[in-house]
Design a protein that fits this description.
The complex is a heterodimer. The relative contact order of chain A is 0.08. Helices cover about 75% and strands about 0% of the residues of chain A. Chain A has 6 helices and no strands. By secondary structure, chain A is mainly α. Chain B is mainly alpha-helical. In chain B, about 75% of the residues lie in helices and about 0% in strands. In chain B, helix 1 packs antiparallel against helix 2. The N and C termini of chain B lie far apart (about 55 Å). The chains are: A mainly alpha, B mainly alpha. Chains A and B meet through helix 1, helix 2, helix 3, helix 4 and helix 5 of A and helix 1, helix 2 and helix 3 of B.
């Protein structure tokens, strides 16, 4: 078993465990902290796939900005106490059953797909994930969507201010 | 590494997100589960990008195939960041009006 496979299994198990802990922790602050661990493990997967730019952007944007925003909102609302009333046990039961059925469909569909059955992923090498190549593509062929996304950010900022303003 | 492993991992993460959206009642936790689903899709896109690159590498050693998927993941992150700012503003406004983030209180929206 090579070091890449060991890292893959370690990161996968940690990601799944933390994702389940996001669901079952009662305190929202603990959920946020477990979700940050999920994001770090996904960044580790990006590093294993040699997508270094996406790994660092994932840490900066998700773990750094979005989760801090979540933490701020939870602290602002004083929600860090376990006040959530639970759904009844049947709702939870059927929720888990439907999620499991969806997973079953995904797994069986991917197992029966003949196009990808013998395809392999290139781990840890290849330069398409580096900042140099990605930046060239982003600013040459995708320059217009890149600029439009700035307009999207501006409208999101204006929307957040307008919605959050007191009447 | 076979692509099936990454498909299975991303499907598990996505389904955990779906179960969270269905079973939890706290609006913030539901929102976090949506983020989890977005991240599962991002991981799968990067894995497919490397798979495509691997199969294009056998034909041409100087290929750039599969790089569009990573640009696409970057744009998904952009949209997710914008979505989070607006969504959290909506949750804060809802908390200010009904003093709760329980989604069952939101059914008064239909009257």
């Amino acid at each position: 078993m090579s070091i890449t496979e060991i890292l893959f299994w370690f990161l996968s198990v940690l990601a799944l465990f933390s994702a389940i802990m996001v669901l079952i922790s009662k305190n929202p602050v603990h959920s946020v902290l477990w979700l940050i661990i999920v994001f770090f493990t996904i960044s580790g997967h990006y590093l294993l796939l040699n997508a270094q730019f996406l790994a660092i952007v994932n840490i900066i944007v998700y773990a750094g900005a979005i989760m801090v925003l979540f933490l701020f909102v939870i602290m602002l609302m004083n929600l860090n106490v376990e006040t959530e009333r639970q759904r009844n046990i049947w709702m939870k039961f059927f929720g888990v059953i439907s999620g499991g059925l969806l997973l079953w469909i995904f797994i069986s569909a991917s197992r029966s797909a003949t196009d990808i059955s013998e395809k392999n992923i290139l781990m840890g090498q290849g330069n398409i994930g580096l900042i140099q190549d990605l930046g060239k593509v982003l600013f040459r062929e995708y320059a217009l969507p890149f600029e439009i996304s700035s307009v999207l950010f501006l409208s999101a900022m204006v929307g957040a201010v307008v919605i959050g303003k007191k009447e | 590494m076979p692509i099936q492993y990454y498909i299975a991992l991303a499907a598990c993460l996505f389904c955990i997100g779906v179960v969270g959206v269905v079973t939890r009642r706290n609006a913030i936790i539901i929102f976090m589960c949506i983020e989890l689903m977005l991240n599962a899709v991002n991981l799968l896109l990067v894995a497919f990008s490397k798979m495509h690159y691997n199969s294009a590498l056998a034909v041409n050693t100087n290929t750039n195939a599969g790089i569009e998927a990573q640009v696409f993941v970057f744009f998904i992150m952009v949209v997710a960041a914008a979505e989070v700012s607006v969504g959290l503003a909506i949750i804060v406004m809802m908390y200010r009006n009904v003093h709760s983030v329980d989604i069952n209180f939101l059914n008064r929206l239909k009257n």
